[in-house]
Each structure stands twice: as C-alpha cells, then as structure tokens.
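Open question from group meeting: does this chain pack into something compact, or does most of it stay loose? Before anyone orders reagents, we agreed to write out a predicted structure and look at it together. Recording both the input and the output here so the notebook holds the full record.
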Amino acid sequence: MSYEYSLEQINKGQAKINFQFVAVDQKTISALKDILGIIKNIAAVPALAAHLRDLDLSSIEKVLDDAMEQSNGVADIIPPGCQAPPY
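Structure tokens returned:
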C-alpha cells in the first residue's frame, strides 16, 4: 500500500496532532498542579505539619511550570503549528 501526501497535508495533519499533544499535556499538568495543591493543604494541617516540614514541593512545582511552558511552545513551531478542532 502506497501513500502519497503533499507537504501541506502533512503539515495540517501534524498541526492536529500537535493540538492533541498540547491538550493532553495541559490537562495532565493541571491535574498534577491540583494534586500538588492538595498536598500543600495537607502539609499545612497542624497535626501533620511537624511530620511533613521537610517536604519540599518547590522542585515539583518548578518541573510542572517548565513543562507547561514547553507545552505552550509546541503551537509556536511553524509550520505546522497547532490546529484546534473543528478540522
């Protein structure tokens, strides 16, 4: 089976794929940030604070911020860029 696609078709297809990658990235990062917020709230509970005082979440927060920045950059790579539905 042979497939022949123009560069324009390939770029459009890649733009759709990029959109899906970015959407998945951002949903995952958002969920992880929500979990991080819950952990911070738990660590602030007085009965637990002494046990969790050495818990440093700043490195996790930094990784998530960096990941979001990288994810946002996917749409800036042109061509193909990032194309949201409807296609």
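Observations to bring back to the group:
The chain has three helices and no strands.
The chain has one domain: 8-74.
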